[in-house]
Amino acid sequence: MVEAATEWGVFQAVNHGVPADAVAELQRVGREFFALPQEEKQRYAMDPASGKTEGYGSSVQRSPGDRKIWSDNLFHTISPPAAVNHGFWPEKPRGYREANEVLERLSAGLGLEEGAMAEAFGGGDDGLVLMQKVNFYPPCPQPELVLGFAPHTDLCALTVLVTDDVPGLQVSKDGRWSVLHRVTVSKEKTRMSWPVFVHPRKDYVVGPHPRLVGGGIPAKYDYKDKTFEDYTYCKINKLPQ
Ligand SMILES: O=C(O)CCC(=O)C(=O)O
Ligand SMILES: [Fe+2]
């Protein structure tokens, strides 16, 4: 539904501050992990119903709209250290951990270390959680029948995105650029991306910025300000916001 009404613009990440050899190493360990036999990958499978919200996920079977969703991913916390559970980080291939730690340093380089970001999203050094995803989109001979990712908005305050050089990310233009995005797949090439999701404090109240909805500009969506924890609950359970 959303798809038919939306005009999509191509978005290419610039990987600012990430050395090309670091991306190549992320790619190498990622490809090696996703090429493992399914039983091996399933050892890390996420299972939200039993409280395992981190680990390996596969979307190959699901088809919410008229296009099949075709991607594999790994999802785990990278910061703060006390929240990291290395049980969700693959032991194979060797080097996965070292390669992926670069993403924490990248996010720290954006000001998290000095507390600037923590302050912006609710204050306190203990509040921000960084979740990292590794997305793996195999090529499809009929890419128009498939999406790597259905249209969605990320569940966080900010996403820091590193990608390889295969295009795929599209952002809804819906009047002006919005946060709604989706991923298409390539006919020939595997695509990979490494988003880091910066979560605000659980009790941080989120809502439209007053300058975006005040002064006679009507709110576009029916939304009540609420804590990030409540926002997450409503989003996951598809409840009205
Ligand atoms: O693959 C991409 O470029 C974006 C992935 C994405 O939107 C997500 O994992 O939430
Ligand atoms: Fe996303």
TrEMBL record:
Organism, by scientific name, is: Triticum turgidum subsp. durum
Q: Which family does it belong to?
A: Belongs to the iron/ascorbate-dependent oxidoreductase family.
Q: Which UniProt keywords apply?
A: Iron, Metal-binding, Oxidoreductase
Key word Oxidoreductase present: yes
Any one Gene Ontology MF annotation carried by this entry is:
metal ion binding
Which co-factors does it depend on? Answer: L-ascorbate; Fe cation
This chain belongs to which protein, by name? Fe2OG dioxygenase domain-containing protein
Q: Does the keyword Transmembrane apply?
A: no
The cross-references to PROSITE patterns, in alphabetical order and at most eight, read: FE2OG_OXY (PS51471)
Q: In which domain of life is the source organism classified?
A: Eukaryota
The segment(s) forming the Fe2OG dioxygenase domain are 127-200
An example Pfam family from this entry, by short name, is 2OG-FeII_Oxy
